[in-house]
Design a protein that fits this description.
mainly alpha, elongated, single chain
């Protein structure tokens, strides 16, 4: 049963990694369109950078948990995901206050990047759920 869980988990984790790669590609394409930052756009860019750093940390911990089959690392994923969710909410709050000062296309690209970063984090948490399943045979929803 454990071997079957391993194969099944690797298959599903691969799907999450592929989707995260697709989202990262989308982010890189959209970043090209943000090259000219409006005066009021620096706050958005700083927020997206902070969010991206947290997402990277979350992905690294989820992959390390899978590599080492360490449930203690999986337990950290919700804590690491909370600031990302907060950045997501903060981004839209900032957008509501500043939307009139930004071009529609520029703001739209920022919105998409923010959403894609949040989705990458969700995929990383899902990898943690697969690690728990792999180790214990029980599916736990970390959300």
């Amino acid at each position: 049963a454990k071997d079957l869980r391993l194969v099944h988990s690797i298959f599903l984790i691969n799907i999450h990694l592929e989707r995260m790669g697709d989202l990262a590609f989308n982010i890189s394409r959209s970043v090209r369109d943000l090259s000219e930052i409006p005066a009021d756009g620096k706050e958005f860019i700083n927020l997206l950078k902070k969010m991206g750093d947290k997402v990277l940390q979350l992905v690294e911990v989820s992959l390390k948990a899978f590599e080492t089959l360490d449930i203690k690392l999986v337990d950290q994923l919700n804590q690491l995901d909370e600031p990302i969710d907060s950045f997501f909410k903060e981004f839209f709050s900032l957008l509501a206050r500043r939307s009139g000062d930004l071009s529609f296309e520029w703001a739209s690209n920022c919105i998409l990047i923010c959403r894609w970063l949040e989705r990458i984090a969700d995929h990383a948490v899902d990898i943690g759920e697969r690690v728990i399943y792999l180790i214990s045979g029980k599916f736990v929803d970390l959300d």
